[in-house]
Amino acid sequence: MQPVAIKNDIFWVGCVDYDHRDFHGYSTSPEGTTYNAYLIKDQKNALFDTVYPGFGKTLLCRLAKTLDPEKIDYIICNHMEFDHAGSLAEIVERTKPEKIFVSQTGMKSLQGYYGQTDWPLVPVKSGDSISLGKRTVVFQETRMLHWPDSMVSYIPEEKLLISNDIFGQNIASTVRFLDEYKDKGDYEHRVKEYFYNIVLPYSPIVLKALPIVEKLDIDMIAPDHGLIHRGVDACRAIVETYRNLAEQKPQKKALIFFDTMWHSTEQMAYAIGSGLEDNGVPIRIMSTKNNHHSTIQTELADCGCVIAGSPTHNNTILPLVSAQLTYMKGLKPLHRIGGAFGSYGWSGESAKIIHEALASMGMEMPCQPLKCAWRPTKDVLKACHAFGETMAKALIAKCEQA
Q1: Which of 17, 42, 83, 389 is catalytic?
Q2: Could you tell me which of 206, 274, 284 has the C-alpha nearest to residue 252?
């Protein structure tokens, strides 16, 4: 449980949760995650964020390897969600800090969770700063990235940005820095996974916040999940990655997700996919039975086209497709084209319902809903292929215009 020095007298004192799989109750973290907390030793010793409930003693043990916990003067709470503040009461009881700094909106979250009125709380706003001695902490509110109470802490003397949730990833590893992490492809996927399941609805806010970050003189970005970005180039790279993800420019790839009862809708999905591939558009086909909704959502990061299918069941669509559409709509994807298909035996409403759901997300819908009675015939499969061809041409045209 050794702390990790990230700069002189600045330490990572967080926790690695290798077994965490259900992230926030709606997404997955297939490799586990980290709850990063940071200590700055100065004339005033400051702890930045805490950890998930049940990990408080681990944080205290790691902290004690470099500083007596009772010598913590300040606690800075950049965000009050439980993975960063769930052990706050335990840490406050042990350290008895002089002051606890939170955003003004964070005061509401803190009092709502803990009901505390006797803690030494100090609300701060963008531009406020405190002195630790040799170092200064400048606060910047990042409202709705991804909670109203979110903020970041900038230490100009160290060129360090403690960025809370933004720029994070769900990676559980013994290494703390990106440049030490061997699997860069996995890292890039985890950045997309985190952004597309948590940050995506706030893409317009991200694009407004990034210029503020770029004005800072930084050579390290330390998020509250995952790996630390060390070096000017690494900091620029993650900022640029966030810009690209937030802009959501259409990409020449199609996501097809579906559920099926007796494989008719499944056959349609693969025939549509063939039409896309034969016209130069790569595809990703995913069953909602076999893929978590957050896994399907992550694929959207590389896809400018979304095509969804379901058989008709009780005059509507199957529950897992409905859940996927609901989840996707809440995350507010932009600049996509969409398509809908489905099979039926009786009433046949499913394709229309999906079409309307995708259109309600602002997607362009180049094709009318495609439906098939009973099992796909040779003619139906030809129609599916033609559907894919039309979608491919529409996506290519959209990408060229972007």
Answers
A1: 83
A2: 284
